[in-house]
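Researcher: We're reviewing a set of sequences before deciding which ones to prioritize for further study. For each one, I'd like a predicted 3D structure that I can look through quickly. This is Lipoprotein LpqN. If possible, include the structure in token form so it fits the rest of the review sheet.
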Amino acid sequence: MRIRHLVLAGVVATSVAACGGAGSDSPETTSAPAIRTACDASAENGSVFTTKVRPDMPFTLQLPQLRYWQVTPGEGDDLVVRRAERRAGRIGSATVTLGVSSPRSAADNVSVLRSVEGKWQQWRSENVQVCGWRGTRSTGIRPASETDGADHYHEFLWFDYLAGDMLYPIRMSVEATAADRDTYQPDIDTFVDGLQIVPTPPAS
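Model: Here's the predicted structure for Lipoprotein LpqN, in token form for your review sheet.
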């Protein structure tokens, strides 16, 4: 699976598209009012997962620290948490990845067009307000591949956060075995609702 990011100058609209294939459902984007998140990672139980403090990043990101979820190694500075358990002779799992892409100047008047490649079923996108910032939450199921033989449920959350004169693209992705989606969905929703941006004080 690949996610394409195309930066266009002078474009003010942002688009998220799924590349469908034979047998996949047509992409759907909801027009309902945006879902607004609570933006309080510690509200669930007082404990949080947090991204690394970076000198080039004026904030950290936090997620609620939920039972059964553990931090696992990820790429670069991304925060990766995972939950796995054996179910009826098989392993069910879910992985949440949270990170920040390279920032761009807010004065550049550009927009990022994102496209998720692959064949998808039940693809859906909806508007969200994350900590007051407009974003998109997309969900879909990728059919079983020859390697693992299991359908996988995916979520993608994207929004831009303005800090100073720079826009920081914040992204969260979820991958879970589709058969266990109902088990993991409450935790996934809690992560999305509790995602919090915490500004870091300037170095003295």
